[in-house]
Amino acid sequence: MKINQNLLIIPRVMEEAFEFLKNNASKFIKDTPENQSFIANPDAPAEHKPKWHQFGIITHTRKFAYHYDHTLPQYLKEWGLCKKMNVYLDDEIDRISKNDLLRLSIPFHDLGKFTGRFIKMENGQPNAHFNGHEKLSEELIRGNRDVRQFFVSQGLTDLQIDYIAQCAGLHYELGKIRDIPKKRGEKFTIAFIQSQECKDYCLTSMKEHPGFKVEMGILYICDSLAKTDIIIEAESDEEIAAKSDEVAKMVSEKGLHPKLSNAIMQLPVNIAFAHRYLSLIP
165: domain range? Predict the structure, then answer.
């Protein structure tokens, strides 16, 4: 397949991708009674998971792209990792850099949340869940006619589409490490990140996905940053805990779900985790 050189105009392609997402999101949602409000407004924060996400899925995805372009480079520079990451992401697949192809995966990384959302009653209240959404996103990129046609219309090759699909499918991979202490009834903390156990899990994940080890770290940090615009800075578990009242007040003033405080308090941990993970890459 001949490569469309207009693909090099990434900002234009990104806007077309977000336009595709806005126009087609409802089509991916199952037409069930509990999904009617979701179909009517697929970007409503209430239809996402307001305990962990301040924004609806589409807005979250746009913020993801913003942080990829603007916030991520600042962190990589601060951590002294710019050169290492650039060398890797400058590698090309059919004459398009991984950096640009990774960027093109962002509008589609949560596509599986539309088709895979399910409602579970918790304490008498319906709550949305999106378990396995990342793999559904990958499957939709590979196999959905409309999604694939979008990429083909932009001149992407099969290898490029495959790379984008794998990025979407692996964007939550480091979240599985984050969930390990939580499954034991413990908190995800700075102390855990600094442990040998966490290091071992990171190295194992890199071995399992050797061609995507950089992408997994980058996707994780940008996804984390896109959950909320309430940002706190802290370098230790004690500093984070000391800000609990301040965070609760900000959440209340914005009229957000009170449990969103947990996501805000976890963000410094997520950033520290991404830092350690990316620093471990040879």
Answer: 5-280
